[in-house]
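Worked problem 6 (solution included).
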Amino acid sequence: MRGDLSVLCVTAGEPCVLPLLQRMRGMSEELGAEFVLVVDGDPALLKSVGLPVAATVKSAGFLESIYEEALTACHGRFIFRLDDDEVASPELVAWLRRKAYLTEWNWRFLRLHLWEHERQYVANPPLWPNYQTRLSLPELAGGRQRLHAPSPFGPGSIGEGTILHYKFLLRSRSEREAQARRYEGIRAGGGTGKFLAHLVPEAVFDPVVTLPC
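Solution. The predicted structure is:
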């Protein structure tokens, strides 16, 4: 029987994100949701630690290039996507447990970009407030082929809780600067301006302002 929710994550399967993927699987099991882990590249490491791999893909260096393919591995009535460096807050998990999402077709959530440790987040615009459209019916989940493309179906209603983003805790400045250069090579402006702020905030803001979680 088709379940209400699929939790989708596309990952390259790097060692630094394994604890977050395990947490994501645990959350899915707690919710009785389908956990759909799609690997961009070699799935050997994930399989070696017992993580279930639903599909493997080969991207062009950015999520949107294989997102439609990844969606086909999901079977739930709704799809909730998390990046491999994100977790849902306890408030968001509780909201999902209540199945409050069944009242609308498309949802967005506030994302907190954690900085220096797990108890504070970046408060400089545009990193705050930063809403992400992440939960919807399957037919409203896709339609994004370009790097950084927004949902063509609108931002959606605001759900409870937050998405906690661990990128700045997991990756060094040099790693994030390299990612910005890759994105700039894929799309002019994709690694500069407001998008650079999402990758290397310390290069854009002086100072990086934080607020407690």
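Discussion: The chain has seven helices and ten strands.
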